[in-house]
């Protein structure tokens, strides 16, 4: 169920009062979809496991081979050592979905306009599937189920054409009376009896009656024949009579009006129409008011609310006209309901809106018509004489006569028939379940699979080596990690295959990454920079976003960065591939951005440590990113210094972030923070390693030098124990678009000393032409600048020789550097005073 429901809450909602170990899945719930029934089944099995019902490996019977039953049976068998037997009276599992290619199953669209409802991926830990025809979805789920049956045999068993006819309570469970519909004569219909400790009733709702209105045959919703088709295209005024205000009735009302009904196309037309996002909050507010009225036992007038709050904007954005283009020419639609209100709160918002748009499109066309009739009984009658029109059906609805070319009746299935064998046990279940629904309110409306439940079944599937067919197809191309970031009020909503602190897997495991960004970068605030940092350093990353909103920013921060060379730009692809709607978490942008950066920085710290430790021990330098030979005693002093730094970085993530950011960027300004931070990643790991190693060597020889967490600079030295020098350890490629070697000397560094680590021999040669860190004596006077400038240290020949000689030699060199600096400073002061 929803994340807010505890395990005991879930069990309470399914348990039959005074019947220990008897549970009902979904048959008395609201919001019934293929996906929601699977979630209810998984949630119940997880709750039973968590609360100890399954610890003794009870023998389990699952009655009903629909979405709930198939999922419950597979889940129970995966997480227990129990024998699980699934009973289904039909000759195949998921029988309702086996007969149609024209009906469509979508996992989340029922809950539109909530976030992620257009995601085509169910994202279930077992028996996963993606949006498609009923037959295609059924095939995928059954392939996954059969795989589990084979791997767990003989513990998981499905028995087809076995009808459970009675349930009797026993001392330690229940006896099932079973009719074997496969038995040959004279044993046909033979009764069998079996004993189980725990029984899950997933009997569903039954099937629709073949003649819901006397003398009118109606094909089942779950057949291709049940979809209104185009056989009336030649008639100038095709007439349709639709009875039933549930989701099936609404869908078929829209289908009857459509020239060539395409369920998926209708969903896309409405949910993705330009301008619809701005109306989602209004739709949600209307739904909330309707549910509040329903809780009080009052019906809600959706038509009045839609007319007052939605008709004008729907017309203005052109959606009414777009729907009108899809309608049959001259179509005459009659919609009959039992109540005066046309729409019911129990139906899906998208289906309601589609029907409303169809009604308004008819109203705007003089040759089309719509009328709503409400009456308790519809009867077929003889054609009047004389008949005003030629029609095969004539109906009476509360005294009003209606002609129709086709009659579609969607009044629901025969629930009492499938519940009959268990009626003695379920006598009060309807009442107690309604109490439970009212008690938990919104948490029961849209079932959600909790994180712990998802983890339980994912681990069980891994242990059994089970992979859903959808995932098997994707695994051939290495399954990408999919995540989505969506603005949600003041927060950013993160969802997908991993948590925010696991974003690092795109670097650490080099796994393909799909980042879905429905909003522009401004809407994401600081999170946009964190996302781009991940993407720019990933070997296989795609941003699913509007190129017009993102391309320029991404290019400026990667390929055209003024602070670095060699940055790559992740691909930007329009559209939403789905698969990233699970486990949503809503956080303020600054907190989410900080979490992402901390996980990335922490991984880089460990990469640094993994390279530096062997270097300290033996000068080992795979790939030669450091490329400086250092004497053993200096390396030992560097190791001791690094131990302190590493502990400080681990304890203070902000300190680590500041150090790394300034190591790859010379500009230390808040306005450039994101641009600098994006550079910190695997692409720049060699220069980060080299810069850190050189800074450590100088810090080890220069007493009391350590990282600092605030500007200016990323280092600080306590000189002579009394005064602080700010320092900047920097291995940047460029400064404001120019090569480091060309502008480092003239750049207005904000610190007293600068440790420059240049990246290639040309730059090293240019800087090494001067004595190590020599400060020109002709710098401007104090009246023009803040002083003579910083001590600039780089990898010169003097530094390389001193580091190879040892700690004493490097200390002597640094002492000379300081003496030269103060000599130059004194001359500059004297020059300014003159």
Summarize the structure.
The protein has four domains: 7-207 and 415-462, FAD/NAD(P)-binding domain (3-Layer(bba) Sandwich); 224-409, no CATH class; 478-587, no CATH class; 612-833, no CATH class. Strand 12 (332-337), helix 11 and strand 13 form a beta-alpha-beta unit.
Features:
4 domains, alpha/beta, FAD/NAD(P)-binding domain, 16% strand, 29 helices, elongated, five-stranded parallel beta sheet, 834 residues, six-stranded mixed beta sheet
Account of the protein in words:
The chain is 40% helix and 16% strand. It is of the alpha/beta class and 834 residues long. The chain folds into 4 domains: 7-207 and 415-462, FAD/NAD(P)-binding domain; 224-409, no CATH class; 478-587, no CATH class; 612-833, no CATH class. The strands form 8 sheets. The chain has a 6-stranded mixed sheet with strand order 22-21-20-18-19-23. It has a 5-stranded parallel sheet with strand order 1-10-2-3-6. Strands 24-25-26-29-30 form a 5-stranded mixed sheet. Helix 27 links the parallel strand 29 and strand 30 (791-793). Mean pLDDT is 85; it is low at 760-787 and 828-834.
Layout: helices, strands, pairs:
Elements: H1 7-14, E1 22-24, H2 34-50, E2 60-63, H3 67-79, E3 84-88, E4 104-105, E5 132-133, H4 134-152, E6 156-160, E7 162-170, E8 173-180, E9 191-196, E10 198-201, E11 239-243, H5 247-257, H6 263-271, H7 280-295, H8 302-309, H9 311-316, H10 319-324, E12 332-337, H11 349-363, E13 369-374, E14 378-380, E15 393-397, E16 400-404, E17 406-409, H12 415-419, H13 423-426, H14 429-440, H15 451-463, H16 469-475, E18 481-488, E19 491-496, H17 505-508, E20 513-516, H18 521-524, H19 526-536, E21 541-544, H20 547-557, E22 571-573, E23 585-587, H21 589-618, H22 632-651, H23 653-664, H24 673-677, H25 685-701, E24 705-707, E25 715-719, E26 723-730, E27 734-735, E28 738-739, H26 740-743, E29 753-756, H27 761-768, E30 791-793, H28 797-805, H29 807-833
């Amino acid at each position: 169920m929803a994340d807010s429901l505890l395990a005991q809450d879930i069990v309470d909602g399914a348990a039959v009062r005074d019947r220990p170990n008897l549970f009902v899945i979904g048959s008395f719930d609201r919001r019934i979809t293929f996906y929601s029934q699977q979630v209810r089944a998984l949630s119940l099995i997880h709750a039973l496991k968590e609360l100890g019902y399954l610890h003794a490996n009870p023998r389990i019977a699952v009655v009903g081979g629909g979405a709930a039953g198939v999922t419950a049976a597979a889940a129970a068998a995966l997480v227990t050592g129990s024998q699980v037997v699934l009973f289904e009276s039909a000759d195949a599992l998921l029988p309702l979905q086996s007969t149609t290619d024209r009906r469509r199953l979508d996992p989340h669209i029922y809950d539109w306009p909530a976030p992620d409802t257009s995601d085509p991926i169910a994202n279930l830990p077992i028996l996963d599937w993606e949006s498609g025809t009923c037959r295609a979805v059924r095939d995928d789920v059954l392939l996954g189920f059969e795989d589990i049956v084979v791997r767990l045999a003989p513990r998981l068993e499905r028995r087809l054409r076995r009808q459970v006819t009675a349930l009797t309570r026993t001392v330690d469970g229940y006896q099932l009376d079973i009719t074997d519909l496969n038995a040959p004569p004279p044993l046909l219909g033979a009764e069998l009896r079996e004993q189980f400790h725990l029984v899950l009733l997933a009997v569903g709702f039954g099937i629709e009656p073949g003649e819901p209105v006397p003398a009118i045959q109606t094909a089942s919703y779950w057949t291709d024949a049940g979809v209104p088709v185009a056989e009336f295209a030649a008639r100038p005024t095709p007439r349709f009579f639709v009875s039933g205000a549930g989701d099936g009735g609404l869908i078929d009302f829209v289908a009857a009006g459509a020239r060539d009904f395409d369920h998926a196309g209708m969903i896309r037309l409405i949910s993705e129409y330009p301008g619809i996002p701005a109306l989602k909050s209004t739709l949600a507010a209307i739904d909330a008011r309707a549910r509040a009225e329903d809780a009080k036992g009052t019906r809600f007038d959706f038509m009045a609310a839609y007319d007052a709050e939605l008709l004008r904007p729907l017309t203005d954005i052109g959606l009414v006209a777009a729907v009108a283009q899809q309608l049959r020419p001259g179509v005459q639609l009659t919609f009959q309901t039992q109540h005066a209100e046309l729409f019911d709160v129990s139906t899906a918002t998208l289906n309601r809106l589609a029907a409303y748009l169809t009604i308004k499109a008819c109203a705007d066309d003089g040759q089309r018509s719509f009328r709503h009739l409400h009456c308790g009984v519809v009867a077929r009658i003889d054609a009047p004489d004389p008949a005003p029109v030629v029609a095969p059906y004539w109906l009476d609805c509360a005294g009003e006569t209606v002609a129709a070319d086709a009659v579609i009746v969607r009044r629901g299935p025969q629930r009492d028939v499938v519940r009959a064998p268990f009626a003695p046990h379920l006598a009060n279940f309807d009442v107690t379940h309604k109490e439970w629904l009212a008690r938990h309110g919104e948490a029961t409306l849209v079932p959600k699979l909790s994180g712990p439940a998802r983890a339980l079944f994912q681990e069980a599937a891994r242990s059994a080596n089970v992979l859903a067919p959808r995932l098997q197809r994707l695994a051939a191309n290495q399954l990408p990690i999919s995540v989505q970031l969506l603005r949600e009020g003041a927060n950013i909503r993160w969802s997908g295959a991993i948590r925010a602190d696991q974003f690092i897997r795109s670097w650490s495991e080099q796994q393909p990454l799909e980042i879905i960004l429905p909003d522009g970068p401004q809407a994401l605030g600081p999170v946009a920079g964190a996302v781009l940092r991940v993407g720019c350093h990933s070997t296989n990353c795609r941003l699913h976003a509007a190129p017009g909103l993102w391309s320029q920013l991404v290019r400026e921060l990667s390929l055209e960065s003024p602070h670095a060379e060699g940055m790559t730009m992740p691909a930007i692809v329009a559209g939403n591939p789905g698969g990233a709607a699970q486990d949503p978490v809503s956080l303020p942008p600054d907190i989410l951005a900080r979490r992402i950066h901390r996980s990335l920085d922490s991984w880089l710290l460990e990469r640094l440590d993994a390279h530096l430790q062997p270097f300290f021990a033996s000068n080992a330098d795979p790939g030669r990113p450091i490329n400086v030979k250092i004497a053993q005693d200096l390396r030992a002093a560097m190791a001791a210094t690094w131990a302190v730094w590493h502990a400080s970085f681990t304890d203070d993530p902000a300190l680590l972030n500041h150090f790394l950011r300034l190591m790859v960027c010379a500009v230390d300004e808040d306005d450039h923070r994101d641009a600098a931070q994006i550079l910190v990643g695997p692409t720049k790991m060699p220069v980060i390693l080299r810069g850190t190693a050189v800074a450590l060597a100088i810090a080890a020889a220069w007493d009391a030098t350590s990282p600092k967490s605030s500007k200016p600079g990323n280092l600080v030295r306590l000189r002579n124990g009394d005064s602080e020098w700010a320092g900047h350890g920097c291995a940047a490629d460029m400064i404001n678009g120019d090569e480091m070697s060309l502008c480092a000397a003239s750049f207005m560094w904000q610190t007293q000393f600068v440790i420059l680590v240049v990246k290639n021999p040309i730059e090293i040669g240019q800087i090494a032409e001067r004595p190590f860190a020599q400060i020109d004596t002709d710098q401007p006077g104090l009246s023009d600048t803040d002083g003579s400038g910083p001590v600039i240290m780089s990898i010169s020949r003097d530094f390389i020789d001193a580091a190879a000689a040892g700690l004493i030699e490097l200390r002597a060199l640094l002492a000379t550097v300081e003496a030269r600096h103060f000599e130059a400073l004194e001359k500059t002061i004297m020059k300014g005073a003159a």
